[in-house]
Specification:
- By secondary structure, the chain is an all-alpha fold.
- It has a domain of about 55 residues.
- The protein has seven helices and no strands.
- The longest helix has 27 residues.
- It is a multi-pass membrane protein.
């Protein structure tokens, strides 16, 4: 991929926006990074996923340092998840060195993961509102645009 001035500007802009959203929402940002790389830059998904992993490492470290300074880090939970996350990553790396998955299957797995995560977030948003009835739908009373993300963001993220 050749880097032209417009490409560099686009990378800076999208990187800044994605990093900001990722830290605010408490997600790694891989969903955004992989989507941007595959859709905008036409990168093969396997390379986009691997590149995204490196980007997530850098952006997550920045968020972690900020939250650490603010005293918002639960070390016991972070260490427990961290150790088993590393073990799972090592296991997956070893497993997939023997089992080859082509890019079309990776795209399907990625899309299904996004679908499940999105449906889960919508479900949690509806549940946080107190439920959704058919009367709400008829009246048009429920809208994700009316959802108070600032106070309920934590409840709506899986």
């Amino acid at each position: 991929m050749e880097l032209y001035l417009t490409t560099i500007f686009l990378l800076i802009l999208l990187g800044f926006l994605t990093g900001t959203i990722s830290v605010i929402a408490g997600i790694g940002g891989g969903v955004f990074f992989v989507s941007i790389m595959t859709l905008l830059f036409l990168m093969p998904i396997n390379i986009a996923i691997d590149t995204s992993t490196f980007i997530i490492l850098a952006s997550s470290c920045a968020g972690f340092i900020t939250y650490l300074k603010q005293g918002r880090t639960n070390f016991k939970l972070a260490l427990t998840f961290g150790v088993f996350s590393i073990l799972g990553s090592v296991f997956a790396t070893i497993l997939f060195s023997f089992i080859q998955i082509d890019n079309s299957m990776l795209k399907i797995l990625f899309a299904l993961t996004l679908l499940v995560a999105g449906l889960n977030m919508i479900h949690k948003a509806i549940k946080a509102k107190g439920g959704l009835t058919s009367k709400d739908l008829e009246k048009g009373e429920f809208s994700l645009l009316d959802y108070d993300y600032k106070t309920n963001l934590k409840k709506a993220i899986p």
